Amino acid sequence: MTVLLDFLALPLLTASALLLVSLVAGLFSARLGFSFLLVFLVAGMLLGEDGPGGVAFSDFRLAFWVGNVALAVILLDGGLRTRYATFRTGLRPSILLATVGVAVSAALTGLGAWLLLGLDWRLALLLGAIVGSTDAAAVFSLLQTSGVRLNERVASTLEVESGLNDPMAVFLTLALIELARSAGAMSAHWGWQALLALVQQFGWGLALGAGLGWAMADGLRALARLTRPGGGVRALLLLSAGLAVFASATWMGGSGFLAVYIFGLVVGNRARGSVAPALQAMDGYAWMAQAGMFLLLGLLVTPSEALRSLLPALGVAAVLMGVARPMAVWLCLRPLRFPPREIAFIAWVGLRGAVPIVLAVFPVMAGIDGARTFFDIAFVVVLTSLLLQGATLPWAARRAGVVLPSRDDAAAARHVFGDFEVTADTRMAALCAFYGWPAIDDDTLTVGEWFHRTSQRPPVEGDQLRWGPAKLSVRRTREGVIERIGIRIEGGMDEPT
């Protein structure tokens, strides 16, 4: 009996103590500017065979299962918290970044891996696909804990992109694994299969997520009227339904990640009152999923083996963060007239987290030669991203000028928006005449209409234009419509920028 109790108590004591210490350390690390999730990854490494824990763990199948389930929980929680209004400014750029952006980033990173590691071109592209997408867990975590208030366009783009780009990364990884296993060149048959798989992944994921989300929202509202379940019960209902949607979409050949995110999005918006009491418990489930996933993935890593490919892996990380991600973001966002400072910030905050490590398990399970090296490189890329990009997010946001002042900080608001403000329905021609600014072409335009027409993009709080010696800023919007404009008088006679 004692042996049986030891079998229960000792592993439970070790796991719970490790989680407790990691949580406390994570809270302090977040205050120092490091990603909360980095602590769990390091804790798993310390528990592993190269650390003081000395635990030899190499069960890639278990890591694959836990990683996928954890990502499903994280995406469900993210979808439940995302409002439809977020898509007003974030949908088009996010879709481009989640599809074209991931493909471009994977291709350029694959080129770098081919040059640095001397891999076969198919394996180099596979490595690029593994590390090519941003990570929802890392992005959601840092946006919550960074302490900075980003403008709506940047925040919504980062948030929605991280929720939508996993399907493209999974599709590219699976397609390139099949290409690598064929040991042959690309063929028309492979191309048609890949295209069919892409349509199937996105089609089933979108259809099941939206359809079942719609039904769940109606059912949740009806259940709330009949039984009034508590917040914990509602959270369990949402969690079990979300995992069922994820499993169903995956079983039918669709993207479970897309399905569970869309499911959460639809339920969270159509049954907001019924979902709200469950969000606190869902937040706990999401953090538990992140903690468990990063601990397990850290345990799976053997640092002594990862060090053998450290320099090439750092080279791949440099190509990804310094060339591939910025080029992909610029190609996707410049046609949408994103300001250069916002493009630069979004390019830098292309955080990598658990997704690349989970995707690196795919080729290991598929029996691809040298796949363990992919796993070690993905780990170094993730660690580098969390250390550099994650730790510098507040600094980069302030440097790029995408931080908005607190709504209660009048002094900071004056510094950003200027000392004067007018309502958006003020005639722009009257302002030009009063302040001596250059005349505009259409005297009938209000300052809000002029600002929107000149910027040629959906306005958000914090947008700025220069007109003559003045800098005009969007100080307040409501449902995408400018309400108030801030004015700062500066030197120079520049045209709008």
TrEMBL record:
Alphabetically ordered keywords of this record: Antiport, Cell membrane, Ion transport, Membrane, Transmembrane, Transmembrane helix, Transport
> What SMART domains is this protein classified in?
CorC_HlyC (SM01091)
Q: Could you cite one Gene Ontology molecular function of this protein?
A: antiporter activity
- The UniProt transmembrane annotation reads 12-42, 62-82, 94-117, 123-143, 195-217, 237-263, 284-301, 313-333, 345-368, 374-397
Entries under InterPro entries matching the protein? Cation/H_exchanger_TM, FAD-bd_PCMH-like_sf, Na+/solute_symporter_sf, Transptr-assoc_dom
Q: Does the keyword Ion transport apply?
A: yes
Q: According to its UniProt record, where is this protein located?
A: Cell membrane
Q: How does it sit in the membrane?
A: Multi-pass membrane protein
Q: Tell me the domain of life.
A: Bacteria
GO biological process terms on file: proton transmembrane transport
Pfam families per record? CorC_HlyC, Na_H_Exchanger
**Domain named Transporter-associated: which ranges?**
413-491
Q: What is this protein called?
A: K(+)/H(+) antiporter NhaP2
Q: Which organism is it from?
A: Tepidimonas charontis
Tell me the name of the encoding gene: nhaP2
